Amino acid sequence: MPDQKTQPAGVGSDSGGEPGAPGASIRIVLADDHAVVRSGLRLLLDGEADFEVVAEAGDLDSARRYVRGHNPDVLVLDLNMPGGSSLEAIPDIREESPGTQIVVLTMQQEPAFARHALGAGAIGYVLKEAADDELVEAVRRAAAGESYLNPRLGARMASEPPPGPPDDLSEREIEVLRLIALGHTNAEIAEQLYLSVRTVETHRAHIQQKLNLSSRAELVGYALRRGLVGT
Fold first, then answer.
1. What domain range includes position 218?
2. Residues 69-112: pLDDT tens digits?
């Protein structure tokens, strides 16, 4: 099911005080494509007296719709959602609802994903494996306008600065590779870069030849290792 358990904006929340102020609840939209995961996360968040999960979403379109409708303090957003790229949606969500902070909750442990998410406008980045220990703190910090980054991932990011673009790829090929890594089809890449699909296919063939890679998964892995996703 794409989405579940919503209630009208304002229901159950105290009279609109600042998040974290006495008598005010922190209103949350929870977005993850697995119902079982959402259920567990909701139990965790509902265990906090001042937290109120106002809506759950199972796809990206529902998440954006509920954020617009409820104007929550915090959106907890899984990166792997049906309906598009969560990473690319972050700036749009922040523009549509400037009062909503975004905490990314994901299995992605690559520093490039965290750099991209935080650079796009997320204020928190929590790994699912550490959610029981970290999500509550990340949501509280986000509601107060403070950032949160999984400590182990933060240490990796500090010790592994993003490498520069590979010298053997042209600037256009780097653009194409980055969009491939973000999950776009050849047709979508062509539309974004104002190219023909045939030209994109040619660029992709040149990239694969230069890097000696044959599959999309290999291209994505290469882009992540080189830090291209966050550029």
1. 171-225
2. 999 999 999 988 888 888 889 999 999 999 999 999 998 888 87
